[in-house]
Amino acid sequence: MAGTALVLEGLTKRYGALAPAVDALSLTVQPGEFIGLLGPSGCGKTTTLRMIGGLIEASGGRVLVDGRDVTALPPHRRDMGIVFQNYALFPHMDVAGNVAFGLEMRGMKRGEIAAKVQAALDLVRLGHLAKRRPKELSGGQQQRVALARALVIEPSVLLLDEPLSNLDAKLREEMRAEIQDIQRRLGITTIFVTHDQAEALAMCDRIAVMAQGRIAQLGTPHDIYEHPASEFVADFVGRSNRIAGHAADGRITIGDLAIDAPAPVAPGPVTVMIRPHRIAFTAGGAGWNEVRGSVRRVTYVGDVLACEIAAGGAAFLVEQPTRPGAPPPETGTEVRIAWRVADTLVFPRESA
Amino acid sequence: MIGRAAHRTLIAALFLFLLAPVVLVIPMSFSADAFLIWPPSGFSLRWYAAMWRETKLIDAARNSFLLACLVCAVTLVIAMPAALVLARGRFRGREALVALLTAPLLLPTIVLALALLILFVGYGLIGSWPGLLLAHLLVALPYGIRVLMTAVSTLPPAVEEAASSLGAPPWRVFRRITLPLMLPGVTATAATGRDVPLRGKPDRPAGRRGVSAAGAADAQHRHRAGARGGARADAG
Fold first, then answer.
1. CA distance B88 to chain A (A)
2. Is A86 within 8 Å of B157 when comparing Cβ atoms?
């Protein structure tokens, strides 16, 4: 199936007089693209997905599928496959019945349905469980049935609403790869809602990080992680040291420390953010920021060594892979730590 | 395993205890005696022959059966949409409406009956089919609404949304998903709706069913006579 272009234009959802749950959100999804809506709970990501699928009515704006305005269409005429967080399988039908449902609604012939159902179940490697009831399946199997049921109707757009959050960690990684494989193979335009940044980074072509009903940043996983547009994005995606500083004369002071920023910064209070694993116990050089501090705490977890370094009245968390023959530093010792200027993220202080 | 066996035995014993009086009625109906004696001295069909001669009883049973079907159907037709709206809707006065609609459950039947009698006399409804239907609906509907509301609110989340996203228009969602999943509640409601006329009151012990049918026949005769009497009084 060829991918479909999905365009959201100023999509808005208001509940009474409250601040809008989704606030004039615009997004253009390329045919076959896998887009993640990532954000904390209450950011409007699920509301956006439900408006795309027609499960709730938009208060304003438009949803366009291949240029066709579907905003006023009820869900059963939108031709979108939805996978729900709790799977929402029909408990009174067996697996094959669940998958066949959408085809029956399309008035397809019995023989054709059987063939398509079998193909869809084979796609998710559940061909042998067609006669089971949903409650006789494990969480991961139910999830795959839900996926097969949404895919078998060959929808124009696939909507995934936190599909992995009810699975345990190991299964979640398996399903992550499986959903990604299937999506690539079918080339189906997909919207994936999640609050898990690792999931979004691992699976999506592009991610829309959402906050308060708006897109805070739209970009590839690499963009979002390496060049976060705001303190919120830097904080929500990945982990960061978050240190208060002050910008003046082209440099940033943190207590009695002075460091360089990768780009000119307007003078005033700033938040400096540095990923813990980008800081190393080395001397700096050209293009590096180097500070001296004392080791306050050392946490050794086998593959990672995490140290908290006190410097300039701030705490720097440093994470490095462990190596044989490199014993962890002692608490209280003086150390030098350094990171690339390019890894220094500087944002004007949001609540100055 | 022992625990499970004990559990099953207990359940079997309970069923036996509850159903024994009902089961016993069957062999006793073939009794050849003039009085209720266990064990009967002999078996015959004399009581069945006697029953068919008892036209009052047959009429009453037939009326009760028709009424049961009618009450059952009307209850489902009214209670199903009402339950859907009351369980799902978010509107002002919803709680009050639920309380009002289920209020008859709180009243002792005798109070209801007296109130109905006083009210019905004024409208000439005593002993009429519309009157019977209304009176029975008053008891059957609250049960129906209650049970079906529970059935609606325990529907698994999002299945209806899933069905509609798969291309099912609203009535097919109801027919294929909502209704089948509510079926236990619907069956319970239908049973209550049928039960009210047959037994007089849903929680009445099953053993009195036969007596109740006969009682209903007498009551109906009295009502009819009363209504005719009332009409004559008006004419005079």
1. 15
2. yes
Walk across the sheet containing A157-161 and list its strands: A80-83, A157-161, A189-194, A34-38, A206-211, A214-219
Q: Which of B165, B173, B175 is the best residue to mutate to test the A interface, defined by the most A CB atoms within 10 Å of its own CB? A: B165
Residue A80 to chain B, least CA–CA distance (Å) = 6
| Closest CB from A81, A84, A105 relative to B172 | A105
pLDDT value of residue B195: 63
**Listed residue (A171, A138, A346) closest to A247, CA to CA:** A346
| B36, B28 Cβ separation under 8 angstroms | yes
Interchain proximity B168–A84, CB inside 8 Å: no
* Tokens at A310, concatenated: 């006190």
pLDDT digits (tens, 9 = 90+) for B68-127: 899 989 998 999 999 999 988 888 889 899 998 888 888 888 888 899 899 999 898 888
Domain boundaries, chain B: 60-227
Q: What is the DSSP string of A12-70?
A: EE--TTSPPSEEEEEEEE-TT-EEEEE--TTSSHHHHHHHHHTSS--SEEEEEETTEE-
Q: Give the whole-angstrom CA distance, residue A205 versus residue A192.
A: 11
Classify B60-227 by CATH class. mainly alpha
Rounded CA separation B42/B30 (Å): 8
A171: which 2 tokens? 């299964």
The DSSP line for A256-269 is TEEEE-SS---SEE
B172 neighbourhood in chain A, CB within 8 Å: 105
